[in-house]
Amino acid sequence: SGTLFIVATPIGNLEDMTYRAVRTLAQVDLIAAEDTRHSLKLLNHFNISKPLTSYFDHNQQFKGERILNALRQGKSVALISDAGTPCVSDPGYHLVRDAVAEGISVVPIPGCSAAITAISVSGLPSDTFTFAGFPPSRQGKRRGFLVKVTDLPGTLVLYEAPHRLEETLQDILHVLGERQVVVARELTKIYEECIRGTVSEVMASVAKGKVRGEVVILIAPGEPVQEETEPLDKTLHRLLYEEQLS
Ligand code: SAM
């Protein structure tokens, strides 16, 4: 059978396309795109002309079968989404799962993802972070979602639609309290900007100028609960001597 390539594309700046992504898209038999009209612009920019088929949430079942058939016939297929890495808050998961189940080889062509791009410049703790995707759009569910992630270690990374940014920040303040946050907007584009501060401070600057464009919200971990701790020299003494003796 053929190979399914999962190809990352830029999240704004076309120079973030990798050489390997261009070569792969130019070599496959078929490109499956979330939105073919949107992706045509990218493909034209790189002079790539290939058969295109759409693959998005609503037709996953149907088009998935067509793409799998092409793979079964030995054709190579590349999956791209509108921006960034397919399957990361984007269609692709069902196709990859089904291809894996059939023993079809799935090859990543890595590149941009807004979540990783945002964490890299956030200045927030980044060894451990949780990417939680889009919060629910209704307030009740969104608050419930935030309650569940309150005690996760490390920084929390969320995607959000620009018109819901203010209400989501309000809920973050309500549920998680006054934490440090970063709103990374329009990454890799002309109006790229990181708005940093406490939730209230960021809300104030968001309210001032209308925040347009795409945003990633990053929330710093909460303060660890202070526990009674014994002094370090005492701990060492206990571990080295007392526990050995007993
Ligand atoms: N698959 C993409 C990725 O790997 O980043 C994510 C797709 S998701 C449908 C779109 C969301 O990603 C936006 O609502 C926004 O939260 C975030 N996003 C995408 N591009 C961005 C950019 N240039 N700057 C900031 N956030 C971006």
UniProtKB/TrEMBL annotation:
Catalytic reactions of this protein: cytidine(1402) in 16S rRNA + S-adenosyl-L-methionine = 2'-O-methylcytidine(1402) in 16S rRNA + S-adenosyl-L-homocysteine + H(+)
GO biological process entries: methylation
Enzyme Commission (EC) number: 2.1.1.198
GO MF annotation list: methyltransferase activity
Location in the cell: Cytoplasm
Tagged with keyword Thylakoid: no
Top-level taxon: Bacteria
InterPro entries: 4pyrrol_Mease (IPR000878), 4pyrrol_Methylase_sf (IPR035996), 4pyrrole_Mease_sub1 (IPR014777), 4pyrrole_Mease_sub2 (IPR014776), rRNA_ssu_MeTfrase_I (IPR008189), RsmI_HTH (IPR053910), SAM_MeTrfase_RsmI_CS (IPR018063)
UniProt keyword list: Cytoplasm, Methyltransferase, rRNA processing, S-adenosyl-L-methionine, Transferase
Tetrapyrrole methylase domain span: 3-202
Tagged with keyword Ligase: no
Predominant place of localization: cytoplasm
Annotated function: Catalyzes the 2'-O-methylation of the ribose of cytidine 1402 (C1402) in 16S rRNA.
Entry's family note: Belongs to the methyltransferase superfamily. RsmI family.
Protein name per the record: Ribosomal RNA small subunit methyltransferase I
Organism: Pelotalea chapellei
